[in-house]
Write a structure and sequence with these properties.
The chain is mostly helical and 608 residues long. It is built from 27 helices and 8 strands. A hairpin with a 5-residue loop joins strand 4 and strand 5. The two termini are 73 Å apart.
Length: 608
């Protein structure tokens, strides 16, 4: 950056100094390119804006002209927003980069005008644009993509087998001059002789006049109509019989992303052959994630059972697991690496026709038009020829989210379990847990928890009438009440009286799991499935009901409802069923002086 190129040269130099200091102190491997772009863009804008506010750009300084520069920053941000639109992040990134440099100068203690200091410590006026997070593909869409990709791999392997057969029969066309034989054209492609300049004088200008064997190599519809004509399409069509193109490798990319939940598209795309190590147990991958500045090695094991039948003519064993797919991918690209030894050892090495009219090998970027993931979905090779029934947007990152979702369904654990080793919990929550399937799983978990609570809330004590109490030890009567004969005898003898009502098994409380005596009796007895109420307990229950009504006057309504509301409702149900016995129970309280003896802990815990 040359500050002298700007009219506000001193201001540009001050900002450029901050850029260098920040880049070196933060050890930015990219040289702080975003910061440099922000400085250049603001200096360019300041050259035009500062004269409109009466300031010569050459006089502008960070330590003197705070108000003018604050106004310039605001105008620059507005101009960026108008130019790039509301859905662009570029205005926020540039302004935030400039404010970062100004804040660094403020924190270091260098002289900065007060107005500019305050602006540096404030955020950008317009926040960055946040797009709607991508959702995963549904399970049905995942299966559609998987099956289409497998069909494309099979079609590629079959095509390369045919190319190998032609290559075995072909001869050098320069020797006998036969450029009309497909096998010779394949041989020329293998020898890297197939170019537009070499074929143009040897074939008629019109593709309709070509020999039928050569025309058959061009892409055609089912009825035989040529879809593409000319040498520019013949050369890649011949090369496709020997070498996979980017579109062919897209199927491997899809299948690998669907099978590797811990690998991002960029990590997979950046793999080289030295990053793969096949062992007796599977394949070990060394993966690099530049954003996280992390290198890790993952082992993908071979299946123990016998594998599916596959391409017997290739080194791959036909398996669709990660090791099997990588073996098949290396097999279909083996001839590419042999013919183009100067090409870098990328895992995804594709052969395409370059602008010069020759075939050349290079890394498959899957970015040019016609080779993108969306193009593959619109017309998958080896399929039906029509677009796949897959929802938009056609983004390869959704494959990774789909794999994460499948893993979540399989594990069914907590967020920390589902995040795995390659994510922090917060990253998983922000980028993966928002998906439809995650929401469905969360809904199921909530429904299950609510159902469990409602089942517990709906459990009420067993009410035993006076007639049934007299015959309680009879097996039929005990069975109708859900009791055993032994429990009935203990109940009749009063050995299971918990102070308010009876309990069929104090050591099997739904409120604890350690098989010890229930610790919440009699506070929760009216909400327990183990409680057994005799009609002789009505005086106690009436006194408890009176106590609860007293608490209604003492406690705030929300607290009373939380502590006593459910028990009040349970008591009301009992009184409704025994309405004719309630007056007698009231008289018994008065005549016999019945008292309600509540434990001290119950009073101190609930009554304050």
């Amino acid at each position: 950056m040359d500050p002298a190129k700007f009219r506000c040269g001193t201001l540009a130099a001050q900002l450029a100094d901050e850029w260098l200091i920040y880049t070196r102190s933060m050890k930015r491997s990219d040289g702080g390119a975003d910061l440099a772009q922000a400085v250049r863009a603001f200096a360019t804008y300041a050259d035009e804006h500062l004269p409109t506010v009466g300031l010569d750009p050459a006089e502008a300084r960070l330590e003197r002209h705070g108000a003018e520069l604050v106004e310039a920053i605001h105008g620059w941000e507005q101009e960026l927003r108008d130019r790039h639109g509301l859905r662009s992040n570029r205005p926020y990134v540039k302004v935030n980069s400039l404010l970062t440099l100004l804040e660094q100068r403020v924190q270091r203690g260098d002289s900065v005008a007060e107005a500019l200091r305050l602006r540096a410590l404030a955020p950008a006026a317009y926040p960055g644009y946040t797009s709607e997070p991508l959702d995963e593909y549904s399970n049905a869409e995942r299966i559609v993509l998987r099956d289409a990709a497998r069909a494309a791999v099979r079609a590629l392997e079959a095509r390369l087998v045919r190319g190998s057969e032609l290559l075995a029969r072909g001869v050098d066309p320069r020797a006998d001059g036969d450029w009309h034989e497909p096998a010779n054209l394949v041989g020329a492609a293998h020898s890297r002789l197939l170019t537009t300049g070499l074929l143009k004088p040897r074939l008629p200008e019109s593709a309709e006049k070509w020999p039928s064997e050569v025309k058959a190599l061009l892409p055609a519809a089912e009825d035989g109509t040529l879809l593409k004509r000319g040498l520019r399409y013949l050369i890649p069509a011949v090369g496709a019989l020997l070498f996979p193109a980017e579109t062919d490798l897209q199927a491997f990319r899809i299948l690998l992303l669907l099978g590797m939940s811990d690998t991002t598209p960029e990590e997979l795309h950046d793999l080289h052959l030295p990053d793969l190590e096949f062992t007796d147990g599977g394949v070990r991958l060394v993966q690099r994630k530049d954003r996280a500045e992390r290198i890790r090695a993952d082992l993908h094991a071979d299946p123990e059972e016998d594998q599916a039948a596959g391409a017997v003519d290739f080194l791959g064993d036909g398996a669709w697991d990660v090791p099997g797919l990588l073996r098949r991918l290396l097999a279909v690209t083996a001839l590419t690496r042999e013919v183009f030894p100067e090409a870098e050892p990328w895992l995804f090495l594709a052969v395409e026709r370059r602008w010069s009219g020759v075939l050349d090998a290079g890394v498959a970027t899957f970015l040019p038009s016609g080779r993108r993931f969306s193009d593959w979905i619109g017309d998958p090779p080896g399929g039906t020829g029509g677009p796949l029934a897959v929802s938009a947007p056609y983004d390869v990152r959704r494959l990774r989210k789909t794999t994460k979702t499948v893993r979540a369904v399989a594990l069914g654990g907590t967020v920390s379990d589902l995040a795995g080793d390659d994510h922090h919990v917060e990253v998983y929550r922000n980028h993966y847990a928002h998906g439809t399937t995650a929401h469905v799983l969360a809904g199921r978990a909530i429904n299950k928890a609510q159902r469990w609570v409602f089942e517990r809330l709906s459990e009420r004590p067993v009410l035993v009438t006076s007639e049934a109490e007299a015959r309680l030890e009879e097996p039929e009567v005990a069975a109708d009440l859900g009791l055993s004969v032994e429990e009935a005898k203990l109940l009749r003898a009063g050995e299971l009286d918990m102070g308010l009502v009876n309990c069929r098994n104090p050591h099997s409380s739904p409120h604890r799991r350690d098989n010890k005596v229930c610790h919440v009796a009699p506070a929760m007895c009216m909400l327990c499935r183990n409680a057994v109420v005799f009609t002789s307990h009505l005086p106690r229950l009436l006194l408890l009901s009176d106590h609860i009504e007293t608490m209604r006057a003492r406690l705030a309504p929300p607290r009373w409802q939380a502590l006593w509301g459910r028990q009040a409702a349970a008591l009301a149900e009992v009184f409704e069923e025994c309405a004719e016995l309630v007056p007698a129970a009231r008289r018994e309280i008065v005549e016999l002086g019945v008292r309600l003896d509540l434990p001290l802990g119950l009073r101190t815990e609930y009554d304050r």
